[in-house]
């Protein structure tokens, strides 16, 4: 069999995004044992940078082995016990996944549905909280990658805490691209994934548990059903170098090398600067798409900078367009998930990829391909609009 050498593709879908070359290089460094003191130092470095990025003081901050879904599973299975009641607010595909996992933990799940494309409504959560004697957790997705919607977190945190419920937030597509302040905003459990806005390949899920969550972990009646994702055991391995660390499972060495380098790059750029870069490129992409004549999917005012969902124009077929973008321009964009399949495209500008150059390249390529498949569409000048939006953004922050 021949060596597998994939094409360099510009990954502007819903993830993975392109990793920084420095991250990929870090992953080729020699392996170390999982209890080697040099490797333990690396774990400390990763934790320190994750704490800073999450804006938390909690030492139960680490990277779970596995993709974003493993963080979702770890969050829910460490907080919920059989018989607990959990409220999961669903405004897209990943909220639905949370309900599935929460019910697999044996919890009774109350699902609060918000129309896809809109943020979670705090009022609906408030009403539901008032109906029950004891709610163990309120869970939702910060940036819904299936719809391109960002739900504001703080108001719901206050509501959850006023009923003594633990607040669990999915930040898979927001951490590293969108502002998040776990401690200040009252988020008790928060997890992410390395392949969205963190500029790394998929394979690790950064996660943090605050004091309220820690209290639950320490006093729960039953063990979490997952040994692999048991935070009490993982926390013991990741605990500070002064205590004795114990084997739990073999740490994915190279992935952690990559994450350390990815985080180092984030702090070189500066997390605030990085957020602004995501804002600038998202605003020019949205302006460009609208100027082309396309309609954005997510409600205005609640759009997620790292992922823009846009309606597929009438009479245009989804897959031929996406295939042509790959074949002729080496650009991947995402299709719709679940009920949105064939109805929207999802364009990710995550991590390394959130650049104005990528926006211009995508807009020009999309214009060419749409002209090919839909000669009846009278497309406007997307690139010029994106340029104007960039200038306007720069003026707004000057
Ligand atoms: C991608 C994603 C996940 C799942 O992450 P995987 O890495 O695919 O396991 C969960 N939640 C959100 C919001 C996501 O975007």
Textual characterization of the structure:
The protein has 398 residues and is an alpha/beta fold. The protein folds into two domains: 21-267, Type I PLP-dependent aspartate aminotransferase-like (Major domain) (Aspartate Aminotransferase, domain 2), CATH 3.40.640.10; 271-397, Alpha-Beta Complex (Aspartate Aminotransferase, domain 1), CATH 3.90.1150. The protein contains 14 helices and 13 strands. It has helices at 21-26, 37-54, 68-79, 93-104, 122-130, 154-162, 182-185, 211-219, 231-238, 253-269, 271-292, 318-329, 356-373, 382-397, and strands spanning 10-12, 61-65, 85-90, 108-113, 137-141, 143-144, 149-150, 166-170, 189-191, 204-209, 307-311, 331-335, 344-348. The strands form three sheets. Strands 2-10-9-8-5-3-4 form a seven-stranded mixed β-sheet, with helices on both faces. A four-stranded mixed β-sheet has the order 1-12-13-11, covered by helices on one side. Bound molecules: pyridoxal-5'-phosphate.
Briefly say what this structure is.
The protein has helices spanning 21-26, 37-54, 68-79, 93-104, 122-130, 154-162, 182-185, 211-219, 231-238, 253-269, 271-292, 318-329, 356-373, 382-397; strands spanning 10-12, 61-65, 85-90, 108-113, 137-141, 143-144, 149-150, 166-170, 189-191, 204-209, 307-311, 331-335, 344-348.
């Amino acid at each position: 069999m021949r060596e597998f050498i994939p094409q360099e593709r510009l990954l502007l879908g819903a993830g993975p995004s392109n990793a920084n070359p420095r991250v990929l290089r870090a992953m080729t460094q020699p392996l170390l044992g999982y209890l080697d003191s040099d490797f333990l130092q690396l774990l400390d470095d990763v934790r320190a940078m994750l704490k800073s990025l999450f804006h938390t003081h909690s030492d139960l901050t680490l990277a779970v082995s596995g993709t974003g879904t493993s963080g979702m599973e770890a969050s829910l299975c460490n907080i919920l016990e059989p018989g607990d009641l959990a409220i999961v607010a669903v405004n897209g595909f990943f909220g639905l996944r949370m309900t599935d996992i929460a019910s697999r933990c044996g919890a009774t799940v109350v699902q609060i549905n918000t129309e896809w494309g809109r943020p979670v409504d705090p009022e609906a959560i408030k009403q539901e909280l008032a109906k029950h004697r004891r709610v163990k957790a309120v869970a939702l997705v910060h940036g819904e990658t299936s719809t391109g919607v960002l739900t504001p977190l703080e108001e719901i945190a206050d509501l959850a805490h006023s009923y003594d419920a633990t607040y669990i937030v999915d930040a898979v597509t927001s951490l590293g691209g969108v502002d998040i302040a776990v401690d200040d905003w009252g988020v008790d459990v928060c997890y992410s994934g390395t392949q969205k806005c963190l500029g790394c390949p998929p394979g690790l899920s950064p996660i943090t548990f605050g004091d309220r969550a820690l209290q639950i972990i320490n006093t729960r009646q039953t063990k979490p059903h997952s040994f692999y994702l048991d935070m009490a055991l993982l926390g013991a391995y990741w605990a500070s170098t002064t205590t004795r660390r114990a084997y739990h499972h073999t740490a994915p060495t190279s992935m952690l090398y990559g994450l350390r380098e990815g985080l180092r790059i984030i702090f070189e750029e500066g997390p605030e600067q990085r957020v602004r870069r995501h804002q600038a490129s998202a605003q020019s992409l949205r302006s460009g798409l609208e100027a082309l004549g396309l309609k954005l999917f997510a409600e205005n005012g609640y759009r997620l900078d790292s992922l823009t969902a846009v309606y597929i124009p009438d009479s245009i077929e989804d897959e031929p367009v996406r295939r042509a973008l790959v074949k002729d321009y080496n650009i991947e964009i995402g299709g719709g998930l679940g009920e949105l399949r064939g109805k929207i495209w999802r364009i990710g500008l995550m991590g390394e990829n959130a650049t104005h150059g990528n926006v211009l390249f995508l807009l020009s390529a999309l214009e060419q391909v749409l002209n090919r498949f839909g000669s009846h569409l009278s497309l406007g000048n997307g690139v010029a609009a994106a340029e104007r939006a960039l200038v306007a953004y720069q003026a707004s922050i000057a």
